[in-house]
Every structure is written in structure tokens, then in C-alpha cells.
Amino acid sequence: MTRKTYLQILLSGFIFMEWSSVVTAQELEPRSYSAVPVGTNFVVATYARSTGDILFDPSLPVTDLHADINTFSLGYSHSFGLFDHVASIAFLAPYANASVTGNVEGAPGHVYRSGTGDVRFRFAVNLIGGPALDPAEFLQRSPGSTVGASLSVIAPSGQYLPTRLINVGANRWSFKPEIGVSHPFNNWFVEGAAGVWFFTDNADYYGHRNRSQDPVPVFQWHVGYTWRPGLWLAADATYFLGGQTSVNGLPDHDLQRNIRYGLTLSFPLSAHWSGKLAWSRGLTTTNGGDFQTITVALQYRWFNH
Questions:
Q1: Which terminus of the chain is more solvent-facing, meaning fewer CB atoms within 10 Å of its CB: N or C?
Q2: In angstroms, rounded to a whole number, what is the distance separating the alpha carbons of residues 88 and 124?
Q3: What is the pTM of this model?
């Protein structure tokens, strides 16, 4: 096996795990369960850049792995009433490119991939609090605690070729049921969410093999302060574990037990436009990308009423 092939085999596991992690296990998203008026529409354009080292089993003859990942996304969400509670549907379509370098037995190697990623869908509903209010009623409400549930789905729609070790798409379905809580304290808010990612198998992995992945429980916490509607700052943290992969039943040494933390700033630009800046990095990383991620988003909002 050549050094280049060996590097590609290792990095294929990394790309398979990390590019899906950009929108799965490493997510840090405050205000996911905060109340909004029914008939609210959002269009969001997002750019995220992740850079950092890649951690593997130290017994492998691969060192100094580093990745630069750029992800461009376009999303849409719409809120509506469901049994007197506010609910929402959303989708996100990403495009990603990554440049990964490393040394195999002292010899440098490089892998680059670019293409459309897997499309993501999300349905959410507030179970307690968050009544279905139109914009005028929403402005008169007294903010209170909300408890919500959601289901996220990632479809195998991204670029994938079974003849290539490294692909942007994962060629599998992913599902995450989640429950979240949001509670205001005057201008402050605290939030928490717990969910689990489940994955179907990639039955057409390189060499006509079957690749599977164990579930990944994900926990998020957020504490933030709101100066006025649309202008808030949150401190974020997430913990995820599990996710060991197997190829034809043979387990890989890639069990994850990672913690990330960061900050998110939301700010209004006009009556309909707003922006968001986010920064995060790994606190502890056992396997995968030990990344620093910077995200910039531009959002347009309008109401049906």
C-alpha cells in the first residue's frame, strides 16, 4: 500500500465523520426552541470555516494531520400553528470544500475535495409554552419558559462516488430526535437540549463494503443576554460521545468523546435583515477534528400576516 493510498484511507474516515459533524454532532445553536410568531419566514445564507488538527489512533504511522474546511449553506424556515402551539419546518442545503494535509511515515500527503453536501431537514414544535400567536399578539405576550421537541433528518443527497475513498456526501440517512428547554430571567436566558443522532449504513462504501456508525448522543447548553429584540450574545457548550464506525463489521478506533465551547452574537441590521457571528473550538477531543470554527450568517425575515 502506497503512502498516498494509506493517507487517503485514513482521511476518508475523517471526511466521512467530520463533514457530517459540521451539521450534526458539533452543532452549537442557541435559541433553537425560543418562541416566534406564526407565519414567520427566514432565509439564511451561512459561511463557516473550520481549521485545526485531526486526531487519530497514535499507533498509526500518520502525523501532523491538518484540515481547512469551508462550508457554504442556504437555508429556509417557516413557523405555523399546530394544536395551539408554534411549530416550524426548515431545510439547509450545504456546499463544502476541504484541504487536508499530513505525513505518512514521514512523507507529506494532501487530499482536496469539493462538492454539494447532504441536505438537512428539521421539524420542531413547542410542547409547553410558545403558544401559536400572530405577530401583533406576540408583541404583547409575557415571555416564559418553553419546552420543545424536534426531529432533524439528513438525506443522502450530497456528492458521492463509491469508486472514491473520500466523498463530501455520506451516502446514508441520519436522524436526530431532540428535546430542548429555554427559560428567560429578565434579559438573561438559559437553554439546554439533549438528542441522539442515529445513522443508517452506507452499503456502497469504497470496495463494495458496508460502513456503519453507532449512535451519537449530543448535549447542548447556552447562557445568554438580550439587550433588545434581535440583539443578544450567548455562551455555548456541547458534549457528544459515541459514534464508533465499523467496516464490514470490523470496528475502527474512532470512538468520540468530545467537548466544544463557543460564543454566538446575533444583531439586527434593519427591520427585516439581521446577522449572526459565531466562534467555537474544541475543549477536549479524543478523535476527529480538533477545530476552531468561525461562522458568519446573513438572515432575511418576513411575516405572512
A1: N
A2: 5
A3: 0.88
